[in-house]
């Protein structure tokens, strides 16, 4: 398996981690697409979530590009 997997998907509590209306499953999908999580925190003030890899923001704050809804 990808050696990043353990780290990238180490979310102890995905539901808590996403206290938004976002689906944890979709969050995982977005994280996966980004290749994991960054080691930095989301730049949004007060947000303590990990940013997506190569992104400055976390899943919640970066999800606008993905919309969460399946409107392909
Ligand atoms: Zn955030």
Outline the secondary-structure elements:
Elements: H1 5-8, H2 14-17, H3 24-34, E1 37-41, E2 50-52, H4 59-62
Antiparallel strand pairs: 1-2
Bound molecules: zinc ion.
Structure in a nutshell:
By secondary structure, the chain is of the alpha+beta class. It is 32% helix and 11% strand. Strands 1-2 form a two-stranded antiparallel sheet.
Label this structure with key terms:
4 helices, binds zinc ion, alpha+beta, two-stranded antiparallel sheet
List low-confidence stretches.
Answer: 65-72
Order of helices and strands: HHHEEH
Number of domains: 1
The number of E-state strands comes to 2
- How much of the polypeptide forms β-strand, as a percent range? 5-15%
Question: What class do helices, strands and sheet pairing give?
Answer: alpha+beta
Mean pLDDT: 72
**Major β-sheet profile:** 2 strands, antiparallel
Tell me the helix content: 25-40%
| Bound ligands, each once | zinc ion
Distance between the termini: 29 Å
**Total helical segments:** 4
CA-atom Rg in angstroms:
11 Å
Outline, from the CA principal axes?
A: globular
Task: Give me the side-by-side strand order of the main sheet.
Answer: 1-2
């Amino acid at each position: 398996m990808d050696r990043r997997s353990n780290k990238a998907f180490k979310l102890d509590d995905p539901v808590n981690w996403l206290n938004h209306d976002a689906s944890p499953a979709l969050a995982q999908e977005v994280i996966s697409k980004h290749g994991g999580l960054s080691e930095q925190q989301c730049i949004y003030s007060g947000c303590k979530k990990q940013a997506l890899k190569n992104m400055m923001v976390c899943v919640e704050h970066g999800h606008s590009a993905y919309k969460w809804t399946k409107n392909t």
